[in-house]
Amino acid sequence: MKRNVVFAAGAALLVAVVVVGLLSARASTSGDVSSSSGDRGRDPSGPHGPSLREARARLKGAPAPLAAVHAQSSQLLRGGAKAFDARLRGLRGYPVVVNKWGSWCSPCRAEFPTFQRASIKHGKKVAFLGVDGQDNVRDAGRFLRRFPVSYPSYVDSDLAIARRLGAVQAFPSTVFYDSKGEIAYIKQGSYPGDRALGADIRRYAR
Fold first, then answer.
1. CATH code for 40-204?
2. pTM of the model
3. Residue 200 φ then ψ, to 5°
């Protein structure tokens, strides 16, 4: 009987050691993922980006044309290419970054938090606009409620705006306009993180 008790106690101790070891390994692995995920892992706002409340607070005091963009944060705007062109004319004098996306597009969804953060970091000097291409408006609206951004997106069901941008094929695509209203660069495909997008903003959005 005494031997059985000792054996049971030893088995329980061994199980406890294994459990503690597994929990420690999991915690260590989680820490590695966070620290090795590049710019996103270091951003205090987390993987889903800042809230609209935080965005509005940080963008307070932006010039009037940019403030008008921020006032339409996460809205889906209709009017097609005509309305989009009018907005670009109204932003003349400021560089503009246009991100073409769709809620159905996995790479678009993956890079969206990067644009959430960049539009706040640079939003007092650079205008950001979205173009929601070939999307279901209800799905797009639901996506924007989950991943709010400090700028509006223009509904582009027929890709008329995308044709104006010269970015029809690739989803996502990002088009950089300089302050004179000229296209400076077209990036086809997604950005891997904040650092890559930030480098292109500094290079082309001026």
1. 3.40.30.10
2. 0.76
3. -70, -35
